[in-house]
Amino acid sequence: MKNFDKVNVKQEARIELHDVLGLTGAEISINTLPAGASVPFVHSHKQNEEIYAVLEGKGTAEIDGEKIEVSNGDWLRLSPNAKRQFFASPDTALKYICIQVKVGSLEGYTMSDAIV
Amino acid sequence: MKNFDKVNVKQEARIELHDVLGLTGAEISINTLPAGASVPFVHSHKQNEEIYAVLEGKGTAEIDGEKIEVSNGDWLRLSPNAKRQFFASPDTALKYICIQVKVGSLEGYTMSDAIV
Q: Contact B27/A109 with Cβ under 8 angstroms?
């Protein structure tokens, strides 16, 4: 496998990077919910931790029935079994990243995994 | 452990989210290199795949000696052994995310891991 891959993400409703970049440790999607829209279902996961980052706009994350206001610069970690649904605000689109990784899979990182 | 954690990332040179959010499957940093600056060393990894996303600005990723121009919206996957160094352009700061995950650690994802 090539040592790296690159893609440029244009404005689109949703793109999934796993196959585009040949990812092996994560799936990553970049998503835009139009103003007033929501992900159309509540979901949780079997074994994946999810990390969400809000890039633009604002909205609400409903997590286990709790409403969390989110906006640009917010990062969230969700345990696999958290029941989640994302909503854009009525007047602003919500652009966000969703990163799926296997819970507990990270061993060393940064200085303990780096070779400088 | 709580089912979720949230943090808002303000403009800063670098923040690491592993401990802030209690991540178990990834380390994620958000970084800003001022115009003309670079990460001060070349590095690779023992077992972590890295995924970079450019949020703002432009610069150069030097990967195994190859210069790759990067700008807003670019996503890169790097194999652990790729030798890498990032440079902001001379006149524009480079703001980017770096995601570390264990290579080969992802099993199911999206529909095969979701409970809807």
A: yes
φ, ψ dihedrals at B10, nearest 5°: -85, 175
* ipTM, two decimals: 0.94
pTM score:
0.95
Tokens of B19: 């401990």
To test the contact with chain A by mutation, choose from B1, B2, B4, B28 the residue with the greatest count of A C-beta atoms within 10 A, namely: B4
Q: At A44, is the secondary structure helix, strand, or coil?
A: strand
Which segments in chain A show pLDDT lower than 50? none
Closest chain A C-alpha to B102 CA, distance in angstroms: 6
Tabulate helix, strand, coil % of chain B (nearest 5).
5, 55, 40
Q: Look at residue A80 and give its three-state secondary structure.
A: coil
- Closest partner residue to A45 (CB to CB) among B47, B82, B113 is B113
- From A2, which residue of chain B is nearest by alpha-carbon distance? B79
Burial class (CB within 10 angstroms; exposed 0-12, middle 13-18, buried 19+) of A41: exposed
Q: Which of A56, A5, A58, A15 is nearest to A36 (CA)?
A: A58
| Chain A residues within an 8 Å CB radius of B105 | 24-25, 101-102, 105-106
pLDDT of amino acid B11: 75
Nearest C-alpha in A relative to B107: A102
